[in-house]
Specification:
This protein is an alpha/beta fold. Helices cover about 25% and strands about 35% of the residues. The longest helix has 13 residues. The mean pLDDT is about 95.
């Protein structure tokens, strides 16, 4: 079963409905103590890095999510959920993240004039080989909503980038942990393909 983490800042219904549509059993995980019963976990998220981490810390999710990641089971962060995977975020002041991936989250600052937040459809500019992106081509658009971007400290964790007045990281991954800055659950057939890939992903770690 797929667990969708509920820490009070996620797009839970859309993610669950997407998996239901694909025929996979998914359930909302409301307390950290239940996390270990799931075969794979999704960390969604909307809002700010600091407020999300304050909720995650206060509810006891931080330790539980780190422990789950150490099991080798598939773990996917979506949008803000991807950003929370990193060590530190700068939104509303520096704040420690979950720390599953090395790097930080900083304000999105395009090199040419672009509206912030970045809202709408955009394609992946560069794609590295990864099971979650099987069948995905660079010209296919995905739905983005964000004002901050991830800056990985390890370049090998970058799986795909996007161009919005300059390149930013759109997909990251290391071993059984992955993150996507866009919303696959809102990205029509290509996004559903990614969620289906995640449902069948067996990380080699």
């Amino acid at each position: 079963m797929i667990g969708i983490v509920d820490y009070g800042a996620g797009n839970l219904a859309s993610v669950r409905n997407a998996f239901d549509h694909l025929g996979y059993e998914a359930a909302v995980c409301r307390v950290p103590e239940e996390l270990d019963q799931y075969e794979r976990v999704v960390l969604p998220g909307v809002g700010s890095f600091r407020s999300a981490m304050e909720r995650i810390d206060s509810l006891g999710w931080t330790t539980a999510l780190r422990r789950f990641a150490q099991t080798g089971k598939p773990f996917l962060g979506i949008c803000l959920g991807m950003q929370l995977l990193f060590e530190m975020g700068e939104e509303h002041g520096q704040c420690a993240g979950i720390g599953l991936l090395p790097g930080k989250v900083v304000r999105l600052e395009p090199s040419v004039p672009c509206r912030i937040p970045h809202v709408g459809w955009n394609g992946l500019a560069r794609i590295e080989r990864h099971p979650l992106l099987t069948g995905i081509k660079p010209q296919v658009d995905f739905y983005f909503v964000h004002s901050f971007q991830c800056v990985p400290a390890d370049a090998s964790t970058v799986i795909a980038t996007c161009d919005y007045g300059g390149e930013f990281v759109a997909v990251v991954g290391r071993e059984n942990v992955a993150g996507m800055q866009f919303h696959p659950e809102k990205s029509q057939p290509s996004g559903m393909r990614i969620l289906e890939n995640f449902a069948g992903w067996m990380p080699a770690c």
